[in-house]
Amino acid sequence: MSRRWTARLALASGVAAFLVLLVFAGFGGIVLVAVGLAGIALTAAGVWWMLTHTGWIRVLAALLVVAAPVTVLVLYAIAGLLWVVLVSLALWALAVTAGRAALVEDTAPGMPERSAGRPRHPFLIMNPRSGGGKVGKFHLADRARELGAEVVVLDPERHQDVAELAQRALRDGADLLGVAGGDGTQALVAGVAAEHDVPFMVISAGTRNHFAMDLGLDRQDPSTCLEALTDGVELRIDLGRIEAGAPEEPATGRVFVNNASFGVYAAVVQSPAYRDDKARTVLEMLPDLLTHHSGARLSVQAGSVVLNGPQAVLVSNNPYQRGDSAGLGRRQRLDSGELGVLGVEVARAAEATELLLRGTQGRGLTVATAPDVVVHADAPLIPVGVDGEALLLPTPVRCRLTPGALRVRVPRHRPGVPHGAPPMNWRRVRRLALTMGRAAVGHGSS
Length: 446
Prior knowledge:
23% strand; 6-stranded antiparallel β-sheet; alpha+beta; 17 strands
């Protein structure tokens, strides 16, 4: 189905959703919508109070989160209009899904790639614990050795400096570095590869594999990444770098391939109790962090954008696709030359509700891009999450981007980066459905 007809389907479904309410519920349809919106607002407020309070207030908030939607459904059922609401919601869901699909561009240019010869001395580091033991499950070490690679499997019982292992391999003649492990390990070795301008290879053997996903690699079967050794192409991508401390002091820095997080998330991950009981640690720490009762107060300068007092900040190596306020989605490109910035500042239940309902258009969320970002704080040290690794860094903390710093070797044939649907925009959908139709008629008659 063409984008024009998908947009028309979205408009028709949206209109049908309202007509079902008006025809079968009459004036009561307007009341139904008002009751539903009130239920959503009360639920969102309850979630906010759950996150920002402890004790009996949290218990009452939890009851509100359950009671609000249940009460709305009961009222609909008593009025004999529950089926009307369900049909209307289904049509509305179809309208939004079709509208977002219509807004996806037909084609999006990928990152340029060039042919690459087979490496003579590839050196790979593999973490046997990553991803629940994917290195062993997929026999990655044996398969890589069969393809001529030198492989070091890390010892789970002792700490090994992966950056030093990579440096030593380069001194011994390695002409490609690679990692089968988490994104934090990937970043450390990628920094060495970029410093010496040698190709870097990603094997998707971690848990989430965000970096591999944005390179278009197969995350289900990491053994397919080894095809880069025999039939690979090369991409040039950007690298983020984070440096801490006053400008006059020697900078402590490291590379990041995904993102650096500040504020709520970084503080929670920093807690010693987090690894043992994640859910309980989050519930105990969030109230103070979200209401600024504990933790450092941040100030962020991202180009011309200034954020004063955000609870959470995410600085990413290239921006995430629109509509992704959690930084958990995809980056369409890794060579745009700019950092992505997401800042969350929510002080009241109303702002939390708006953020929940409107997503990236809510007042509590700031989305920006910049070549460099500086994070100040009212504390000498702040927790920072760098590609999922918990660090404690001196302030101010500076993030910058080095365009085209890393040569990445990937398989010639790979799944690619799926195109995510953008946030809904009814004005654009209507214009797409109507204007393109008229344009098509004009072309056909000429």
